[in-house]
Amino acid sequence: MAFGLLRRWRSAGTSGAAPVLSVPLPDGAGAFACEVVDPTGQPMGGAEVTVTALGNHRIAAQGTTDPYGFFTATLPPGSYSVRMMADGLTPARETVEIAAGAALPPTRVMLHPAPQQELPPPGTWLFDPPHTAIRFIAKHVGMAHVHGRFTNFDGAIRVAPTMADSQVSVRIEAASITTGNKTRDNHLRSADFLDVERYPYIDFVSSRFVFQGGSKWTLHGTLTMHGTSRSLGLDTTYLGTVNGGYDQELRCAALAKTELHREDFTLNWRSMLARGIAVVGPTVQLELDVQAMYHTHDTPTPPE
C-alpha cells in the first residue's frame, strides 16, 4: 500500500477521537497499520514487520517500516500475529482481528532495548587466522562489485571487567590484499593505491565500545592506512562464546562492518579515472569476521 495514505491519516486525526485510516480496500478485505518507535519515542524507519495468519501459520504480509515508522497492509478477514523487530531491540508482538471492509486504527508500538548478551570472560583473546576473515567489497567503476580480502594479519581483543573499557587492535599486511586477479592486485599494491612499499601495514586501534542493545555494539577507533589516520565506528555483532576446536579451547566470535571512503585516506580515484584507469569506486565496505581464542599460559598463541 502507498505510505502516503498514512500521512492523510495523521493529518485527519482529531483531538480526543481515535484516528481513522483512510485506505482504499479491495472487496472483502480489511486493513492493519502500525507505527513503530524506538525507546525514546522516535519513529523507527526500517523496522521489520511480519504478519502471520494464526489459522494456517502462513506469512500474509512482510516488509519494513517507512522513514516515519509506519507499516500498513490489506488482509483477508481473520486473526493475525504481527511481529515487529529491529537490531539491538527486543521484538514486539501483537494479535489483531481483521474484519472485511474495516481499517483498524494504527497501533503505536515501542521497541525496548534487548537484554545484554552474556559477554566473554575478561582477559586477552587472540585472533585465530584460519577461522577469521577480513573482507571488503568495492564497486568496480561502471561495472559489478569487486570482492577481496587480506590474508595476513594479527589481532587481539582485550576484554576488561567493564566492556566499555575493552580494547581491540588489528594489524594487516597491506601486501596480502587479493581479489582473484593478479594484474588488479599488483595495481592495488602499487603507489596508485595502497603503496605497500611505503606503508606496509594497515592498523586499527579501538577507543571504546558502545552498547546498542542485545548483541549489538558500536566499536569506535582509529584506522591508519596509506599514512593517514581516521576515526570510524564499526557496527559489531557479538556472536557468542563456545568451547570447541583444537583441544577444546575457549573461543568467541564477532562480526564487524563499516564503510570506508578511499579519498579519506588520500587514495584519489578521480585522478586515475582521468588517466583512463577504472579499478574500484570511491567507497569500500569492510567486514571483519572474527573468531578469537582465550590467551592463557597453556595456549599462548593460536595453533599453526
TrEMBL record:
Gene3D superfamilies reported for this sequence: Carboxypeptidase-like, regulatory domain, Lipid/polyisoprenoid-binding, YceI-like
InterPro entries: CarboxyPept-like_regulatory, Lipid/polyisoprenoid-bd_YceI, TTHA0802/YceI-like_sf
Domain spans labelled Lipid/polyisoprenoid-binding YceI-like: 124-293
UniProt-listed Pfam families: CarboxypepD_reg, YceI
Entry similarity comment: Belongs to the UPF0312 family.
Protein name from the UniProt record: Lipid/polyisoprenoid-binding YceI-like domain-containing protein
